[in-house]
Amino acid sequence: MELLVVGAGEMGRWIARASGADAVAFADRDPEAAREAAAAVDGARVVPLDGDDRFTAVCIAVPMGAVPAAVAAHADRATEAVFDVSGEMHDSVAALREHAGGRERASFHPLFSAANAPGNVPVVVDRDGPVLRELRAALAAAGNEVFETTPAEHDRAMETVQAGAHTAVLAYALAADDVDPRFHTTLSAPLAELVAEIAGNTPAVYADIQERFDGSEAVAEAAAALSDADCERYLELYDEANR
Predict the structure, then answer these.
(1) Three-class DSSP category at 73
(2) What is the DSSP letter of 115?
(3) What pLDDT, in 10s, does the model give residues 97-133?
(4) Residue 148 backbone phi and psi in degrees, to 5
(5) Which residue of 158, 190, 214, 220 shows the fewest CB atoms closer than 10 Å?
(6) What class, spelled out in words, does domain 2-149 have in CATH?
(7) Tens-digit pLDDT profile for residues 6-59
(8) Closest CA relative to residue 211, chosen from 74, 51, 66, 52
(9) What residue segments make up the domains of the chain, in order of their start?
(10) What is the DSSP letter of 29?
(11) Which residues contact 160 (CB under 8 A, 6 or more apart)?
């Protein structure tokens, strides 16, 4: 498989390495980023973003909001398959159906940063074929848990596991005072570790997730309910949380 990766960021580099492709090319609106990505992946090369070279497969590895336009612009550069690794599936799959008709197409979401690979990778396979089967096999061989889902199931889950979880952790970070680490409890210490993990990542990724998925409002409402509760109401909410 010859793979074109549109987007030379962290996930673009990850898929280039994990895909099992025989040859990889990077295209990015920032030519320097594409050159750096190619230098970091053995045997990879750089091609123009507006080039007309064709490849067995095209992977769209750009921020969520940019996926539909990127699919529209680059789907025709694939002879067999088009897929994305963006993290949102409703709009991505719709764009793939519209612009990659007749080709294999799928939307993958690695639920981890590249530094923490391997991990879980949900996928919506909209039109299967040998290239995508080979890709899924390569990801599984690299230690990833690849499992099929639907756009609705995936995006609904992201409201909790991403938008809600990020909001809860960042809200704790904003509200917490600096304390001597010796005061941390078995609950606060892991929270502090989660804060540190988020702080070491790319903030624009979290902003994209917040903008795309609901979930933060529910966390804010729950926190307000806990804050305003008297003892009796607090115990009711505690029991509700346990259920």
Answers:
(1) helix
(2) G
(3) 999 999 999 999 999 988 889 999 999 999 999 999 9
(4) -85, 150
(5) 190
(6) alpha beta
(7) 999 999 999 999 999 999 999 999 999 999 999 999 999 999 999 999 999 999
(8) 66
(9) 2-149, 153-242
(10) S
(11) 215
